[in-house]
Amino acid sequence: MAIDPGHNGANGDHPEIINQLIDGGYGQRNACNTTGTETDDGYTEHEFTWHVANYLKALLQAEGIKVVMTRSNDTSVGPCTDKRAGIENSADADAVVSIHGDGAPPEVQGFYVLTATRPPAGATIAAASLRLAACIAKAAEDGGFPPSNTLGSGGLWKRDDLTGLNRSDRPKILIECGNMRNATEAALMKSTSGQRRYAAALAEGVFAFLRG
Ligand code: ZN
Questions:
Q1: Which end of the chain, N or C, is more open, meaning fewer C-beta atoms within 10 Å of its C-beta?
Q2: Residue 102 Cα to ligand 1 middle (Å)
């Protein structure tokens, strides 16, 4: 199992690194990484994803699942999203969860789970990614989180421009857990209790997926 906590703490100080163009898949040239978003009062997405990822890691390890993380701290730069996909691919992960928070207009609320529009690794992996997405979305709803009121449908959406999905050859999803610019969700995403709830929901989704 691989966990990808989106962004990193020093990305904002190093535009010369994170703005470098990389192979984003399907002929696209994408930025290495981005700073991520933050709440109106400055709680950052990288900090949110870092905490949720570590809570999730502990929950999975407690069930005997081997966990690989795409970054080992919240204070450095990158790695680029193609490198992160490489780490997940090299680990031969049975499932990959990339954790993010959105920075949409304040009226937008709820989670959505992304998969690749053009699956990069064949029909079997594509089907597994869709099943993983469905398991995560169901677990999030069961955990009390609403699906997005704006983006995608029923908490599920596809995009064709994300390096981390385009360059993955494992069953992989990217979740925008909530909108950090929405006051209700910002409060939840800043709090330890909220972060633990997101992690618990993600863990339930992974368990359901691995049970098949
Ligand atoms: Zn993000």
A1: C
A2: 6
